[in-house]
Amino acid sequence: MLAIAIHGGAGSLPRTGMQPVAEAQYRADLALALDAGYDTLAQGHSSLDAVVAAVKVLEDSPLFNAGRGAVFTHDGINELDAAIMDGASLKAGAVAGLRHVRNPI
Fold first, then answer.
1. H helices then E strands: how many in the chain?
2. Can you tell me whether residue 87 is helix, strand or coil?
3. How far apart are CA 40 and CA 35, in angstroms?
4. Cα-Cα-Cα-Cα dihedral of 86, 8, 36, 58, to 10°?
5. 83 has which bridge partners?
6. Digit-coded pLDDT (tens) for 15-30
7. For residues 85 and 92, is the Cβ–Cβ distance under 8 A?
8. H or E stretch at 82
């Protein structure tokens, strides 16, 4: 049995003020991320590979505060951070302050 869970960030978007079209766009990109991760698992790849696949979708979406949708610094540039951990081995890696990398994950 395969299972995957994602979240779209730590901020809050009040659904009361969100237009139905915008909500549908957020849900569509979340579904794409879920599908990317699930498909990776279904193909027999590792859970770490599934995380990377799912996060790449969120990084490529302008709707989430990651990658393409990242908040600009005071100087008007994006500096991207990412971290990942393999739960089985407890090995982890991280990057910070990247400016010219499309998918920091």
1. 2, 2
2. coil
3. 8
4. -100
5. 94
6. 777 889 999 999 999 9
7. yes
8. strand 80-86
The set of long-range contacts for 6-10, using a CB threshold of 8 Å and a minimum separation of 24, is 6/30, 6/33, 6/34, 6/37, 6/54, 6/58, 8/58, 8/63, 8/64, 9/64, 9/65, 9/66
CA distance 32 to 104: 18
Distance from C-alpha of 60 to C-alpha of 62, rounded to nearest angstrom: 7
User: Could you count the other beta carbons within 10 Å of the beta carbon of residue 9?
Assistant: 12
pTM of the model: 0.89
Q: What per-residue confidence (pLDDT) applies to 36?
A: 98
Backbone angles phi, psi at 56, to 5 degrees: -60, -40
pLDDT > 80? residue 71: yes
Mean pLDDT of 37-50: 96
